[in-house]
Amino acid sequence: MGRVIGVNRMAELRKSWRSCRVVFTNGVFDLIHYGHLKLLQDCKILGDVLIVGLNSDASVRKIKGPRRPIMPFKERSKILAALEPVDYVVSFSDETPLKLIKKLKPDVLVKGSDYKVKEIVGAEEVKGWGGEVRRVKLLPGHSTSELIKKIGKLSAL
Question: Which helix (H) or strand (E) is 150 found in, with range?
Answer without folding.
Answer: helix 144-155
